[in-house]
Amino acid sequence: MVKKIHKVNKVINHSIKHKQSANHPLKSYRTSKDLERVTKLGEKITPEFNYAPEILEAFTNKHPNRDAWTSLICTEFTTLCPKTGQPDFAKIFINYIADKSMVESKSLKLYLTSFRQHGHFHEDLIQIICNDLSSLLLPRYLEVVGVFTPRGGISIFPYCNYSNNQEQYKELKNKRLFEYIPGKYSMDLSLLY
Length: 193
Description:
The chain is α+β, with helices and mostly antiparallel strands and 193 residues long. It contains four helices and six strands; from the N terminus they run αββββααββα. It has one domain (42-191): GTP cyclohydrolase I, C-terminal domain/NADPH-dependent 7-cyano-7-deazaguanine reductase, N-terminal domain (GTP Cyclohydrolase I, domain 2, 2-Layer Sandwich). Helices cover 29% and strands 22% of the residues. The strands form two sheets. The protein has a four-stranded antiparallel sheet with strand order 2-3-5-6, sandwiched between helices. Strands 1-4 form a two-stranded antiparallel ribbon.
């Protein structure tokens, strides 16, 4: 039994050394030019706690000929009530179909953190996030859903969407907007954990 464990450890250690050797550098699908607009990823950055849309970054979509959904979920969004300064908590769901650009996730995290000391009503926040992302990405379709923690016994679920001028995405925008009900375009978070 001891010999068997020793042999397994030897194989694992060899495998780790082999993967870390200079003969096996990281192979990237992206070129330096592809990544030149991505400046925050891999850098130690102090979060900005005041609204900072300029922190958002995008990278080139390598598959613009294909429609594909991307869903991003922020489970720990915080902001302040504009009247009382009390904290508000939410889960933010961002679903989009990219065109030429896609949002870089670390910059999105920093952007969403920038609302932490900023006062907005829930409905305004979701529209601001939708506007900022649609301006940055010019996606085919984008929607933002807020699931805010109840305050005073009232839950608020604001929804905002955007589409480009192509007919199929305008139809998708109208269909999803007029069929929206809370929970329809978000998900059971127990699936994440």
